Amino acid sequence: MQNMANTDKFLSHNPTLLMTIGRFKLYEHPLRGDEAPIYMIYRGQLFNTGFYDLGDFYAEKEALCEEIVDGSNRIILMSE
After folding, report:
1. Which tens digits make up the pLDDT trace of 13-54?
2. pTM for this predicted structure
């Protein structure tokens, strides 16, 4: 699966784990830091959350993560 390769590539850059919400892991972009949206890994797939601030996740928590997954913000090709 192509997305698994992107997840592995993303993790190989040792991104900072910002928060875990249930089964969802939220990371800072390993190269662009807080200048990039927060990334999420769920079931081995990498997602661009489109959010730049963890405050968005404190209020909605798991519901927001599930909405991101359902909205298919899956990363098809990770660019550096």
Report:
1. 999 999 998 889 999 999 999 899 999 999 999 998 888 888
2. 0.77
Q: Are 39 and 29 in contact (CB under 8 A)?
A: yes
Q: In the chain, what is the greatest distance between 2 CA atoms, to the nearest angstrom? A: 33
d(CA 61, CA 72): 18
Bridge partners (DSSP) of residue 24 are 21
Cβ distance 29 to 15 under 8 Å? yes
With helix as H, strand as E and coil as C, how does the chain read?
CHHHHHHHHHHHCCCCEEEEECCEEEECECCCECCCCCEEEECCEEEECCCCCCHHHHHHCHHHHHHHHHCCCECCCCCC
- 54 and 38 Cβ atoms separated by less than 8 Å: yes
